[in-house]
Amino acid sequence: MEIFDAIKGRRSIRKYTKDFVPEDFIVKILDAGRWAPSAGNSQPWNFIVLRDEELRKRVAETTTYGKFLADASVGIAVVVDPRASTHPVEDGAIATQNMLLAAHALGLGACWIGSYNSVYEEEVKEILGIPKSKRLLSIISLGFPAETSTKTRKELGEITFVDKYGRK
Fold first, then answer.
1. What are the distances in angstroms from CA 108 to CA 9, 33, 89, 147, 167?
2. Is there a domain that residue 165 lies in?
3. Is the pTM above the cut of 0.70?
4. Could you give the CA distance from residue 31 to residue 14 in angstroms, rounded to a whole number?
5. Full domain range(s) for residue 140
6. Residue 91 to residue 39: CA distance in whole angstroms
7. Measured over all CA atoms, what is the biggest interatomic distance in the chain, rounded to whole angstroms?
8. pLDDT per residue as tens digits for the range 95-113
9. 148: domain CATH number?
10. Partners of 112 in the beta sheet?
11. R_g of the chain, CA atoms, integer Å
12. Which of 35, 52, 110, 160 has the maximal Cβ count within 10 Å?
């Protein structure tokens, strides 16, 4: 898939078929995350593949807006080490976006789950055995899509300025 098609075509998918996601797809998605740039090439991330259905259900139950993780074929938790990078959140976000684009290029649906409070993060860290010193940045739900999304974007001229905010 051409990169601009992938960027423009990727959407958050929250409904999935029951079809199994092949292991080679998961490896390609993880590799896309691994190749993300990071501050000082620190690569402060770890990825946890959530294949077990009961585990995904437990994690989904603790989220505010990620209940659909329970119905996904697989999930990937993105964990960053705040001590390993000057910008661990940004580094983990780039890795997450790379994986979302890779999933789309492979014909999978995916959604970034990251809207939670510190209580949720601590609960999920406990469920997944993530050390207290690490941060759970995001969880990606993955599966073959059972829905489509056709959301549009604002026109570029509406959101772009030259030299100063507000200057067209």
1. 12, 16, 25, 11, 40
2. no
3. yes
4. 23
5. 3-159
6. 7
7. 53
8. 999 999 999 999 999 999 9
9. 3.40.109.10
10. 140
11. 17
12. 110
